[in-house]
Amino acid sequence: MRYTDKEKAKLLELISQSSLPVKEACKLHGISKASYYTWRKQFAAKSQALESEKTKPKENHKEEYGVDTEAVEKLLALKKEHPYFGIIKLSKQLQRSEGIYITPNKVKRILEDHGFETKEPPAAPPKGTRRFERLEPNELWMMDIMYYRLKKEGRFYLISVLDDYSRYVVAHRVFTTQTADNVIQVFKQAVENHGLPNQVLTDRGKQFHNWKGISLFQELLWNLGVEHILTSPHSPQTIGKIESFHRNIQRELLRQKEFSTIKQVQEAIKQYVDYYNHERVHMGIGYLTPADRYFGVADEVEKMACHPNPDAHSFYLVGKLDGQPVRVEKDPKGKITVYLAGHPLKELKDHQELKQLLLPSKGLSPFPKNR
Fold first, then answer.
1. CA distance 353 to 336
2. pLDDT per residue over 102-135, tens digit each?
3. Which residue from 2, 149, 201, 242 lies 20 to 30 Å from 141 (Cα-Cα)?
4. Higher pLDDT pick, 139 / 318
């Protein structure tokens, strides 16, 4: 019988912790004494190799991987922070966030050399597969309700509004109930911040739709001149983009940390949405961020991605001013410069000054707190 490394490790642990003599413990678990000692020796050698890798002189990284030590360290830190990221997403995220490009094959090799398990990238969709999305921001918004349960305070509900074209979350709120009034509050918040959409797509939940008449939500849309589109019965995949966003929140945030109170959840989700909108690359939109698309700077981002800065400047495209792209760069020495249409406009002391400069401007994407 063949055992995986994980199964071998578990058997070694059980036998080493057993109060029985090694020979009897091995027999109890169905392996030979010789196998036990062979496996133990193999795992010890592997552990020693990994430890040796960690202490390898930094100058060897350039020779071994073709990238410098800082790039390797940032890749490993990114993987530890986001263990659910695959090799392609890690490569794209590092390029988008840090201006450092490491090919997916090199990412895979570096991770495996440092003890991380990697998976093969998902297969490309079959040829001829069609993706349906609107052509501009605010043509179609999706709304949906996600629930999650805390051990101490019970169930809470996240109501979100997501732009179909860009995947940008235009509004969200956390509540302890899922009422039509709460849905309307979130929709009004989205409209106040981003204007009216042409259409809104929802499922047939009672907060959105009334089987016997017109719901409060439908009445509001009617009065505003917004078309309400409903999913077909038993077809939740129609709002798959916003459901995917809610799954990501559960996997990447709520299951990574234990929350005690709703207030903690509200703050954590707010920070996650900022990160999701402005920093996290999205496979479904060509590894751009939702803000890149929503604020119309996707072309400028892709130009930067094709010609990354050799000094690995951190850059952030935040939107357009009078039709011209506004870009922010932070060089390796920590100097922050705002560029308008590719020309330096202003040097800033810190991110707080940048935030104060950008937030009052209409049409610009808010700068994340942690950048």
1. 10
2. 888 888 988 888 888 887 766 655 655 456 788 8
3. 149
4. 139
Of 225, 282, 224, nearest to 248 by C-alpha is 282
Report the distance separating Cα 180 and Cα 209, nearest Å: 9
> Do 60-113 and 140-283 agree at the fold level?
no
Q: Exposed, middle or buried, 328 (CB in 10 Å: 0-12/13-18/19+)? A: buried
User: Architecture of 140-283 per CATH?
Assistant: 2-Layer Sandwich (3.30)
Domain formed by 60-113, architecture: Orthogonal Bundle (1.10)
pTM for the predicted model, two decimal places = 0.69
pLDDT in tens, 153-211: 888 999 999 999 999 999 999 998 888 999 999 999 999 989 999 999 988 888 888 87
In the chain, what are the domain boundaries? 5-54, 60-113, 140-283, 295-358
Q: Is residue 204 a contact partner of residue 232, using CB atoms and an 8 Å limit?
A: no
For the beta carbon of residue 114, count every other beta carbon within 10 angstroms: 14
